[in-house]
Amino acid sequence: MSNWTGISSELFAAFTAACCLVITLREANQYPNYKKFTIYAASYIFLTITGLDLFDIPPQTKARLINNSDNFFTLIELSVYTKFFLPLFTNKQKQICILLSIVYLIFFTSFTIIANYHHHVLQTKILIYTIQSLIIITYCIFYYLNIFKDFPKLVLKKEPNFWITTGIFCMLLAMLPLSLAEKYLLNTYYTSWLALAIVYNTLYVLNFITIIYSFFCAKKQEALKQR
């Protein structure tokens, strides 16, 4: 497996994110619920750029830049999905979400500072991502519990929120065990970083595709309402 395979997967993931960015930018006024995904897609593209060898940066500095960019992207990802899910939840679920977000923000700030001071960057990245993933997975479970109550009223394959939720839920469920094993894999099999990168990129491609598909579901719903 060559480096070009990894780069190609990164570029394809960035291309999918760019498609999502263009669609959400063009339709932001008519579909304001998708504005938040503009920031999400743009952040992912920026994250991809930081991972490419476009500038002559010392390896240690580059590794720190990539890891810190990953950490901030997880913060943006959590913020976007918190904002997406909150209107869909009951008051009690909203309170839990806000509490989890505050705890995560405190944890994120504290451990990012400590990691950069003590150079435990990879361990901190894994911790930050694991906690973020568990919080978003909790959001998804809340959503599924809520739609289960209204299941007879919903046609899930035409429901935009269902596709967005399912995209991030499946992606995080697949990525979480890989993230937890990342340090072991990198220490034991150095070349595993390339396989991990390809898997991560592929999962993000599928996630952005579900966001794009959900947008077209929303357009169809809007068209039916106007008839």
Structural summary, described in words:
- With 227 residues, the chain is mainly α.
- It is built from 8 helices and no strands.
- The protein has helices at 3-26, 35-51, 59-85, 91-118, 121-149, 160-180, 182-188, 192-225.
- Helix 3 (59-85) packs parallel to helix 5 (121-149) and helix 5 (121-149) runs antiparallel to helix 6.
Which short descriptors sum up this protein?
227 residues, mainly alpha, 82% helix, 0% strand, globular
Number of strands: 0
| Count of DSSP H/I helices | 8
Low-confidence stretches: none
Strand and helix order: HHHHHHHH
Q: How would you characterize the largest beta sheet?
A: none
**Mean pLDDT across every amino acid position:** 83
Q: Cα-atom Rg, whole angstroms? A: 18 Å
Q: How far is it from the N-terminal to the C-terminal residue, by CA?
A: 53 Å
Helix/strand layout:
Elements: H1 3-26, H2 35-51, H3 59-85, H4 91-118, H5 121-149, H6 160-180, H7 182-188, H8 192-225
Concise description?
By secondary structure, this protein is mainly alpha-helical. It has helices at 3-26, 35-51, 59-85, 91-118, 121-149, 160-180, 182-188, 192-225. 27% of the residues are buried.
